Amino acid sequence: MTKSMESVEERPKATVIDGRAFAQTLRAEIAVNAASFADRQGRQPGLAVVLVGDDPASHVYVSAKVRQASEAGIASFPHRLDSSTSESELLALIAALNADERVDGILVQLPLPNHIDENMVIEAIDPAKDVDGFHPYNVGRLHAGKPSLVPCTPLGCLLLLQERLGDLSGLKAVIVGRSNIVGKPMAQLLLNAHCTVTVVHSRSRDLPKECRQADILVVAAGRPGMIGADYIKPGATVIDVGINRLEDDAGRARLVGDVDFAAVSPIAGALTPVPGGVGPMTIACLLRNTVSAANSRS
Ligand code: NAD
Question: Within this chain, do residues 114 and 190 fall inside the same structural domain, yes or no?
Fold first, then answer.
């Protein structure tokens, strides 16, 4: 039987990219860098994490960030604020954290309650402490190809891709999704890494055809299982950023990505699982950005 006649079931499965293991290695390196900063400066790098309101998923994320910061030798300053906190109270806290010498990184957990203007809050953060990389100053520097604090999720995807593929130069990358948090910075990072980059989104035509061109496919659409086998070039490396919470018939919650893992696995060369792929890299990159901000400020 020729290769093209093999049924999908007979093809080898894609390598599963273990984001948990890679994030653990990264956190160990960050801990060494944090300890060396502490030796030199007489204090640990500091991360302020601000949470407004009682969104359950945000509370889980913030607790994980605080715990992992502490494990890496980063001092954390959590601020859990009531959902009735006013915009001016939040801006006053940001101003205080900007002025606090113990704080190297400020993370405001999104989304914020509707009565607070997210853009105003992001722009109030000192760009030197903007460890989420969302401030227009850092966005502009990333686009200009200059050193900057880079959004954590796309940075985590880039590190996974470089770990797997080495030099990305000349590879064709397609990104599904154009959000400011994932899609756009991902496109810029891959462009800076000399890929040929296409961004597709909800208004794009013939998505499967565009995606089938990709040596690297990064999916951040928030649509459970939308990427099937017909979107995949054989051997492609697929990074699934999507985190979607679904309930089974018994009401049990489970997390799934934007990629139909079972359908794509026989075609792709490598792909990230959900959970255990990009998610753990996001927090590791937040810690990496915090130590990097601390070193730049000292
Ligand atoms: P978003 O809603 O801001 O943006 C989604 C993008 O996908 C939009 O640009 C939209 O045009 C595009 N899109 C939506 N439906 C589409 C379709 N059918 N075809 C083509 N494009 C489509 O979302 P986001 O903040 O970028 O997050 C995307 C996903 O990534 C979500 O599931 C989110 O939970 C997840 N996420 C994961 C992490 C992580 O740490 N792993 C971090 C951030 C976001």
Answer: no
Regarding whether 169 and 274 lie in a shared domain, the answer is yes
Write down the pLDDT at residue 7: 57
Q: Over the stretch 207-240, which tens digit does the pLDDT of each residue have?
A: 999 999 999 999 999 999 999 999 999 999 999 9
Atom 14 of ligand 1, nearest CA residue:
221
Rounded Cα–Cα distance for residues 267 and 270 (Å): 9
* Same domain membership, residue 180 and residue 251: yes
Which of 292, 25, 297, 272 is CA-nearest to residue 150?
Answer: 292
Q: What is the pTM of this model?
A: 0.95
Q: Which CATH number belongs to the domain containing residue 269 in this structure?
A: 3.40.50.720
- 83 domain residue, yes or no: yes
Q: How many domains does the chain fold into? A: 2
Ligand 1 midpoint to CA 185 (Å): 13
> What pLDDT is attached to residue 1?
45
> Is the CB of 202 within 6 Å of ligand 1?
yes
213 CB under 6 A from ligand 1?
Answer: no
Distance in Å, CA 176 to ligand 1 centroid = 8
Distance 217 CA to ligand 1 centre (A): 14
